[in-house]
């Protein structure tokens, strides 16, 4: 054996020992080893896994026509629900309350959870444990949206500041983060102003209001303006302009203006003044927002909204 051959064989022996020691030392650390029969560039084997969530037991607490059911988990790196809609959206099966989504997953263990609508607020439950599966073959996974003994329906109660001022619709029971749609309709002679929570926290100035139900019972109150409100201000021959306003506004009336009151939608009064003329100019530096004007004239009371920019 010549010297060159001896060195080559020695190198091969040392390399083999090092490789064996490396793999043997790592097998106990749950490392994944490459299949010796597969080429290094081969794609890993995947299996078709179909997730089904059955929501029959909570069907009265959400609307499948507007609410979206999502899935997320370790197979999606726990992407925020709704962040990857093409992968996360569970598809309704016909007119049933079963929703389904299919993934191609490699062999392994996965954690996952279902959510109603975007964000983390609408989980089937809060915190751990998550659902878990072990994938070794094609499989269907059937889950039920239910926790024994848990009361699912969160109450939404709607009130009006005066029963004689208007009506409210849309109250009921909802899942957390379900979409609620409410509406306030004023009676003749009244105008809708705002929705409030806890009587003073303004949540919207839109009579038709859509929002996601919080994880608690909720009471909202619709506020209506009373008095001799006229839907067509031209009949009152009264103008408030410019609207929107930046730093001044002018009020003109065909009849004598006796009082004017200006407040924000939260009820804070910015101006209350007695007058005795047909025209009034006001210079202001108020914060941008919607303001409520109540103007008393010899012909009645006029209530309107003005946008400050």
- Tell me, briefly, the overall form: elongated
* Biggest sheet strand line-up: 10-8-15-12-13
Order of helices and strands: HEEHEEEEEEEEEEEEEHEEEEE
Q: What is the CATH H-level superfamily of the largest domain?
A: Immunoglobulins
Uncertain runs are: 1-39, 227-232
Account of the protein in words:
With 309 residues, the chain is mainly β. It folds into 3 domains: 46-144, Immunoglobulins (Immunoglobulin-like, Sandwich), CATH 2.60.40; 154-225, no CATH class; 233-308, Immunoglobulin-like. The chain has 3 helices and 20 strands. Strands 10-8-15-12-13 form a 5-stranded mixed beta sheet, with no helix packed on it. Strands 16, 17, 18, 19 and 20 form a 5-stranded antiparallel beta sheet that branches. Strands 3-4-1-7 form a 4-stranded mixed beta sheet, with no helix packed on it. Strand 17 and strand 18 (269-283) form a beta hairpin. It is elongated, with a radius of gyration of 33 Å. Mean pLDDT is 82; it is low at 1-39 and 227-232.
Itemize the secondary structure elements and their pairings.
Layout: H1 3-27, E1 46-54, E2 69-73, H2 85-88, E3 91-92, E4 98-106, E5 108-116, E6 131-135, E7 139-144, E8 154-160, E9 166-169, E10 172-174, E11 179-186, E12 191-197, E13 201-204, E14 208-212, E15 218-225, H3 233-236, E16 238-241, E17 248-264, E18 269-283, E19 289-297, E20 300-308
Attribute tags:
309 residues, mainly beta, 3 domains, five-stranded mixed beta sheet, 3 helices, 20 strands, 47% strand, elongated
């Amino acid at each position: 054996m010549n010297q060159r051959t001896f060195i080559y064989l020695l190198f091969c022996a040392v390399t083999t020992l090092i490789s064996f020691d490396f793999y043997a030392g790592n097998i106990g650390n749950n490392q994944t080893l490459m299949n010796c029969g597969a080429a290094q560039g081969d794609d890993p084997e995947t299996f078709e896994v179909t997730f089904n969530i059955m929501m029959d037991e909570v069907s009265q607490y959400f609307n499948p026509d507007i609410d979206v059911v999502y899935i997320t988990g370790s197979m999606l790196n726990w992407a925020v629900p709704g962040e990857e809609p093409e992968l996360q959206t569970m598809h309704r099966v016909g007119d049933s309350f079963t929703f389904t989504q299919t993934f191609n997953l490699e062999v392994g263990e996965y954690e996952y959870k279902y959510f109603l609508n975007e964000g983390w607020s609408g989980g089937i439950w809060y915190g751990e444990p998550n659902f878990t599966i072990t994938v070794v073959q094609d499989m269907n996974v059937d889950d039920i949206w239910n926790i024994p003994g848990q009361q699912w329906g969160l109450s939404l109660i709607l009130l009006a500041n005066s029963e004689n001022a208007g009506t409210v619709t849309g109250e009921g029971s909802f899942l957390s983060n379900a979409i609620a749609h409410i509406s306030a309709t004023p009676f003749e002679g009244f105008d809708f102003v705002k929705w409030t929570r806890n009587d003073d926290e303004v949540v919207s100035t839109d009579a038709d209001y859509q929002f996601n139900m919080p994880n608690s019972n909720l009471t909202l109150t619709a506020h209506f303006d009373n008095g001799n409100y006229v839907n067509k201000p031209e009949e009152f021959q009264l103008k408030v302009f410019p609207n929107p306003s930046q730093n001044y506004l002018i009020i003109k009336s065909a009849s004598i203006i006796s009082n004017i009151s200006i407040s924000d939608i939260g009820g804070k009064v910015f101006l209350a003044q007695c007058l005795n003329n047909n025209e009034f100019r006001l210079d202001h530096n108020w914060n941008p927002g919607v303001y409520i004007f109540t103007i008393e004239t010899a012909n009645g009371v006029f209530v309107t909204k003005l946008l400050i920019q």
